[in-house]
Amino acid sequence: MITFPRGRQVVLGVGAGIAAYKACDLLRRLQDDGFEVTVVPTSSSLNFVGKATWEALSGQEVKTEVWEGTQSVSHVALADAADLVVIAPATADLIARIASGRADDLLTTTVLATTSPVLIVPSMHPGMYLNLATQANLETLNARGFHILEPDTGRLTGKDSGIGRFPETARIIGKVREIKERAARLKGRKVVVTTGGTMESIDPVRFIGNRSSGRQGLAIAFEALREGAEVTVISGITEEYELSGIKRIDVKTAEEMQNVLEVEMKDADALVMAAAVADARPDKFAAEKINKGELSEISLVKNPDILAGATKVKKSNQIFVGFAAETGDGIREKGLKKLHNKGVDLLYVTDVSHGKVFGETETSGVLLSKRGAEWGFTSADKFEVGRRIVAEVIEELGLVNG
User: Fold this and answer.
1) Those residues with Cβ within 8 angstroms of residue 173's Cβ, 6 or more apart along the chain or in another chain
2) How far apart (Å, rounded) are the C-alpha atoms in residues 390 and 382?
3) pTM
4) Domain with 369 in it: what CATH number?
5) Is the N-terminal amide bond of 89 cis, ω within 30° of 0?
6) What is the pLDDT of residue 73?
7) From the DSSP assignment, how many helices (H) and strands (E) are in the chain?
8) Last residue of a domain, one of 166, 183, 200
9) Are residues 259 and 278 in the same domain?
10) Is 142 inside a domain boundary?
């Protein structure tokens, strides 16, 4: 079973303030809003809320230091996976460290490494918040593109009162939604992804197929979802998977896939043809199992070239991505030829020599663009390739700054 995270990925950084306990409710509300949350507390914050609490609430392992789990380079992995980093509460010390570019624990290194939006939610004593040093640090972060949510005014610890109170959870969630709406570059756009292999029956038992697992197409669908797209997956024969948020249409044969695609692509902004479609099918289906002794030859007829048919009715504002599996030398050159022959905007050609790629989590190949750009991948995670393909679809649609 291929399982995908529920919703988008949020890193919840927790500073060492008394308001850390309120971040527990924030975590829950983020989950209710469809986010998967990884908590990264500072080591000092564990004096307020312990690691066991965060792990129980998030269902994720909790680390505070870069030296924990060094084999996975935790800060880089978190930075790459995060769609958003929320730091709540952000103390004066934590804000100062981030503003100065410090990288002395897992949270600050993650912030330094990420290219995703970062939301800072200050919470501290009024005197500390209004101090010129803190205000200067916040201005620095704001100038760098960080999102700052001004704290509430009200009762704090003891008899203290004033600005610096941890905002109500609803305010923080509202800001998160605002940021993600702005960052969802494919919001309002429809992306159709075909994936998996087709099954062409010979008789009730046997069929012509291939070894495609559907992993690459599903990775692309997931990355498109992360960008806010309406995603339709036309799913051939794949590994079992669960990917919430998509419109899933299951098919078996090339003709079924073609018929569904003709309908779904009419209002699509982008088509990613990642399915491994069988090139041929038996010219007739035997209703009864063919006796092994009689199975001497099978007459074949060509299946339709689904992508070629789609490009004939391709609209000028639609972006098409093709896939090609090749073996032997000259993978890139073979891909360039197909890029132009297929009439697509992008084509990913992968090397499947010796059974590589199919059913694996990694892939090697070259992504080619009709604009002349190309990106090479060697033993790359299929999600990495998916992110690049989706990024180039966004570029082709002119939505880079959308």
Assistant:
1) 26, 29, 30, 33
2) 12
3) 0.73
4) 3.40.50.10300
5) yes
6) 43
7) 13, 21
8) 183
9) yes
10) yes
Position 72 pLDDT exceeds 70: no
pLDDT digits (tens, 9 = 90+) for 274-325: 999 998 999 999 888 988 888 888 899 999 999 999 999 999 999 999 999 8
pLDDT tens per residue, range 227-264: 889 999 999 999 899 888 899 999 999 999 999 999 99
Domain boundary among 183, 217, 233: 183
Examine the residue annotation and report whether 210 is marked as an active-site residue of this protein. Answer: yes
270, 315 Cβ separation under 8 angstroms:
no
Q: What is the CATH number for 13?
A: 3.40.50.1950
CA distance 208 to 278: 7
CA pseudo-torsion sign 209, 215, 221, 225: positive
Q: Looking at the 3D structure of the chain, how many domains does it have?
A: 2
C-beta separation of 366 from 348 below 8 A: yes
Residues 163 and 213 in one domain: no
Neighbours of 43 (CB within 10 A): 13
More confident residue, 295 or 348: 348
Q: Tokens standing for 251?
A: 């098919």
Q: Which domain holds residue 171?
A: 2-183
Catalytic residue among 47, 131, 142, 210: 210
